Amino acid sequence: MRGQWGFILGIIAALIIAIFAVINVEAVRVNYLFGTADWPLILVIIGSVLMGGIIVGAVGMVKVYQLQQENKRLKQTNATKNSPTNQKEKDTSQDKRKKEDSVQTEAKGK
């Protein structure tokens, strides 16, 4: 459901931007570092929206990559903690603790 709402909001935003861009078709002067040029405002608006989308998408992809790497690292750590040899060590240490506890309770009872 969340993906559907995101898609619907994306379509609405695209329509608003497209309408705004079509209304503003007059030529405007764009100043670059190395000169100036006259461009239709519709191209400037659409170009700005596309650049913003590319930047947001790139930042999102970096975040997803970082989370995937962290997930992979945590799975490896979890696998080593739950390995059969490690589990046997845990079982024996728990058995020792239970025996110690029972000896202590017997000693307290006497």
Tell me about this structure.
The chain has about 110 residues and is mainly alpha-helical. It is about 80% helix and about 10% strand. The protein has helices spanning about 1-25, 40-80, 85-110; strands spanning about 25-30, 35-40. A two-stranded antiparallel ribbon has the order 1-2. Helix 1 (about 1-25) packs antiparallel against helix 2 (about 40-80). The protein is rod-shaped and about 95 Å long. The relative contact order is 0.05. The model has no long low-confidence stretch (mean pLDDT about 80).
The tally of helices reads 3
Number of strands: 2
Radius of gyration: 31 Å
Strand count, sense and barrel status of the largest sheet are:
2 strands, antiparallel
> How much β-strand is present in the residues?
5-15%
Strand order of the largest sheet: 1-2
Query: What is the string of helix and strand elements?
Result: HEEHH
Outline: rod-shaped
- Arithmetic mean pLDDT: 82
- CA distance, first residue to last residue: 65 Å
Share in helix: over 70%
Low-confidence stretches: none
Q: Structural class from helices and strands?
A: mainly alpha
Q: What topology emerges from the helices and strands here?
A:
Elements: H1 2-23, E1 27-31, E2 36-40, H2 41-81, H3 84-109
Antiparallel strand pairs: 1-2
Helix pairs in contact: 1-2
